[in-house]
Amino acid sequence: MRGIFIIIVLMFVFVQNVVSQLVPSKFENISYLLTFGKESTPAWGDDDHVQIHFFVIPKSETRPIFIRVFDPSTSGELDTKNGKFDTRTTFTIYGGVGAYSQKEARSINPSKNYDKGRVIDRKTFYNEKEYDQKWYSFGPINSKEGEYSEEMNGYIFKVICKGVSGNDGNAYQYALSYQDKANVIVEGGNVFTYEMCFRLKPGIRETAHVYPFINKDVVSIKQYNFDADHDVDMRLTSVTKKLNYVKESGNGTWSSSLHQVDEGEKNTSIDFQLIKKTKDYNDMVIYFLNQYNEAVPFFSTPIGGVPKYKYKIDVNYKFD
């Protein structure tokens, strides 16, 4: 990706000492990530049954880290049941060369080569009751086992969640932590993805947020969303725009809208807001492409902070 994330090196530590590194985060206000078994139909809200997240550890970090998963099994109250629970989900952690640099891992339709890198750990979950609404920790992991990225000024781990069988939806969360029994923030760490399947909170006016980072080379961004069921009002807010309309999708369909990038929006995050209309549960997918049709990353902790619209007030004086 052209001109990728140069500014991130300087901005990575924003609010990391204030909030827990959960995915989805407090900033996103999203219930859970969702991955469905490969036998489910896209109408349930997952278009490809694979979800990829990247965990960034600062270069200066020497302590081991843990990547934790909340409710990794598919058999409980949080999961989406389709008939009887019969779904197996595999979580795999990759480091080393190819974990991030292999471009297919940064695509929005992973089909081949997206799983490059060295496998550090892997576990498949089914309907184990001991993991229902409980945490499972991968690690300890040497932070230097990730793939080093000069642009990110850190080591990157790739985590792939794949629905390997069944047709149910696995609802889960991630956490990046120094400990295996608690979520203790990794200083300067962050998590990002290029496409996300997730569950909206089921309340009228509940507002979810997705924060794509706009680097200096981006002149336009096109958002794509899937299976929103016409159950959300979508708006875009940035430092130069306030509540611009975004086109939302229907049941089992895609929708998209193109948004030009102002000069003031470069090297900032943009806030795509999804405002629920009903109290129904809703699982959906979202991703973004720039003018080169390259996927744009979005971060659990928005780079540079939550964007705030900067009001411009013009005052004209007339003297008689």
Written overview of the protein:
With 320 residues, the chain is an all-beta fold. It has one helix at 8-11; strands at 22-23, 32-36, 50-58, 65-70, 88-95, 118-125, 135-141, 147-149, 154-165, 169-177, 190-193, 195-200, 207-210, 213-214, 220-226, 232-237, 244-246, 254-260, 268-269, 271-276, 282-290, 298-299. It has one domain (8-299). The radius of gyration is 19 Å and the shape is globular.
Number of strands: 22
Helix fraction by DSSP (H/I, runs of at least 4): under 10%
Q: Report the uncertain regions.
A: 1-19, 313-320
> What's the overall geometry?
globular
**Describe the biggest sheet?**
9 strands, antiparallel
Order of helices and strands: HEEEEEEEEEEEEEEEEEEEEEE
Q: For this entry, what is the oligomeric state of its chains?
A: single chain
Backbone CA Rg: 19 Å
Head-to-tail CA distance between termini? 57 Å
What is the total number of structural domains?
1
Q: On the 0-100 scale, what is the average pLDDT?
A: 90
Q: What is the count of helical runs? A: 1
* Structure class: mainly beta
- Beta percentage is 35-45%
